[in-house]
Amino acid sequence: MNRKIFAQLVAQTNNDVSKITSDLIKETFDVELDKTYDTIVDYTVAIDNKCLHRYFANHWDNDMKKWKHSGLALIDQINDMKPRAVLDVGCGYNEFKGKIHNLIGIDPYNNRADHEIDIMEYRSMEKFDIILALGSINFGGRNKIIAEVSKCVNMLEDGGMMFFRVNPGVQHIKPEAKWIEFFAWNVPFIIELSEMFNLKVLDIRDDSNQRKYFIYRKVK
Ligand SMILES: C[S@@+](CC[C@H](N)C(=O)[O-])C[C@H]1O[C@@H](n2cnc3c(N)ncnc32)[C@H](O)[C@@H]1O
Description:
Bound molecules: S-adenosylmethionine
Largest sheet: 6 strands, mixed
Helix content: 25-40%
Shape: globular
Number of helices: 6
Structural class: alpha/beta
Distance between the termini: 32 Å
Radius of gyration: 18 Å
Mean pLDDT: 97
């Protein structure tokens, strides 16, 4: 859950959900909801989703060339493995489509994705031998991150590999990113997840722009 939004709602309403109005939501977060909710947690999830949608659909832009390890360099690295099925989670503008073989891009907020869907909603008949999560499992608190990584592990074949780019919690500077919570990834958490999900850490490196790049293999 997004703790910035939750804390703001609690502070503004003195923890009283009945004080949440559409005007308050509009004035504070500049988004509009199409229904009301019974709890502050539910409001938090709905507002967070709107803020992520607004930012990633309309304001965020990317330059794949800027990444030392987790950008264009991945194309040959992954194709050399002759992948049977690659899932790009949070593919953004789907820039690897047609470049990395057998790749499907999913993203709930970008209409260039093959499927406009959240990782937690995505269902696939097949398992993937490679999963990419490049800057996309990075929003919200620890439990959300763990749930999203767990979902990826379940969609990965035994012996398959996951490639990550993660942000150590650096806020994006555009004003529309103000209410997004960037989870502060660090190396101990990368190791903790590997132990939690029986993954082998094959590589961890500093990438450009303070990001970390790492690779897990799902142990058979
Ligand atoms: C920083 S961008 C990175 C995009 C792309 N992977 C890249 O490297 O350029 C993060 C992406 O994650 C997507 N995203 C956010 N939450 C997501 C979720 N729950 N499931 C799937 N994608 C998500 C966003 O829409 C956005 O396109």
